[in-house]
Amino acid sequence: MADAAPRLQGLFTQLLGAPLPVRIRAWDGSQSGPPGAPALVVRNRRALRRLLWKPGELGLARAWVAGDLDIEGDLYATLDLLAGLIWERGEDARTLAQALRDPGVRAAVRGLVRLAGPPLPPAPPREEARSPRRHLHTKRTDRHAISHHYDVGNDFYEIVLGPSMVYSCAYWPTPDSTLEQAQRDKLELVCRKLGLRPGLRLLDVGCGWGSMAIHAAREHGVNVVGVTLSQEQAAYARKRVAGEGLTDKVEIRVQDYRDVRDGPYDAISSIGMAEHVGAERYLEYADDLYNLLKPGGRLLNHQIARRPQRDESTYSVDAFIDSYVFPDGELQPIGSTVAQLERAGFEVRDVEAIREHYALTLRQWVSRLEADWQRAVQLAGPGRARVWRLYMAASALAFERNRIGVNQVLAVRAPESGASGMPLRARTWGAPGRD
């Protein structure tokens, strides 16, 4: 008799203390759960063993990446239904220990063990980052972390990002605009905030595939140095620069920003890079950028932020993101970012929250990935493609629900005179009709 799904439904209800809001379809063909709801597809018993050996998010992530677990139906709706019940509970070991004191929970765990089959731990998927999770943020560990995320293959990123090849939040004039137009508007917004004009020197920290450097040089006549730790990004960016005829204005380096010694610069852009810095080294990052700027120079720091916690000592990095997406990446509240920039000597002149813009951007990236799924799998492998689909869809929901945000912080290295060089009414940098 095929009964794995109803058994799992009952066991999970006991373990979680609430019924699953989705259906379960199991490897034996059985189904159970609310009619018409999206389905959590448990393809084999190995998915259960992964959950038993790594309860919580990491076990779920391993099952998803390996293809042992899947979703049938609307991905966003399913993740939204499961978020409050599973992902947002955290992985507090004391809470788990307390739960196991309940005889009913212990019985459910024993039932899950029997249903899971041979109690050997499955090997983690090969896409999992193997480096120690100590968040040291040395030059060596940062280089490995960046390589894990960005050296996936430029062809794969072309599928996801589209012709703009910009891997950060776009700036949408309307929700119906194209991704390419929204990314161009974001690059132009950064240039206007920095006050770029012909002859100035710009340092683009974490330059990616060169889009910001090319736009600033082509549209505003500045001389740009872009630095990245990714060999694949640098090779792609240099080819683009040459194709645009901008080799006399743009230099792309494989270099850690901490090793840049040819300042001072008139302006610095750091777009989607500071998330890799780490909380313990953030003041060092701010100090380095401050020292690379001329007095009166501007910094545009574009960075994802998390919501502050009442007890910041309880913050832990998301297990799935840390193991499969951004090894050693850390988010901090916007208040902490502003405070660290000010400690380094910057005067913070403007903070613009563009959270909803990132949700729109991520949904576009997911749509592009899904539309060319088979080619993406051929280029990056099924596990890597599944990682990107899950993390981008879950991130879109996180931005929409205000669990995380993204901000552009404009700061100035004010000279001794105190003259910032900023206009009295600064917010004149957006395109007409959008301020």
How is the secondary structure organized here?
Layout: H1 4-16, E1 23-25, E2 31-32, E3 39-42, H2 46-53, H3 57-66, E4 69-72, H4 75-83, H5 93-100, H6 103-116, H7 139-150, H8 154-161, H9 179-194, E5 201-205, H10 211-220, E6 223-228, H11 231-243, E7 250-254, E8 265-271, H12 282-292, E9 293-306, H13 319-325, H14 334-343, E10 347-353, H15 355-371, H16 373-380, H17 382-400, E11 404-412
Parallel strand pairs: 1-3, 5-6, 5-8, 6-7, 8-9
Antiparallel strand pairs: 1-2, 3-4, 9-11, 10-11
Helix pairs in contact: 1-6, 2-3, 2-6, 3-17, 4-17, 9-10, 12-14, 13-17, 15-17, 16-17
Category from helices, strands and their pairing: alpha/beta
Largest sheet properties: 7 strands, mixed
Distance between the termini: 64 Å
**Elements, N to C (H/E):** HEEEHHEHHHHHHEHEHEEHEHHEHHHE
Poorly predicted spans: 89-94, 431-435
Strand portion? 15-25%
Inertia-based shape:
elongated
Determine the mean pLDDT. Answer: 88
Strand order of the largest sheet: 7-6-5-8-9-11-10
Count the beta strands. 11
Supply the number of helical segments: 17
Helical fraction equals: 40-55%
The quaternary organization reads as: single chain
The Rg value, from CA coordinates, equals 24 Å
Quick overview:
This protein is an alpha/beta fold. It contains 17 helices and eleven strands. The chain has helices spanning about 5-15, 45-55, 55-65, 75-85, 95-100, 105-115, 140-150, 155-160, 180-195, 210-220, 230-245, 280-290, 320-325, 335-345, 355-370, 375-380, 380-400; strands at about 25, 30, 40, 70, 200-205, 225-230, 250-255, 265-270, 295-305, 345-355, 405-410.
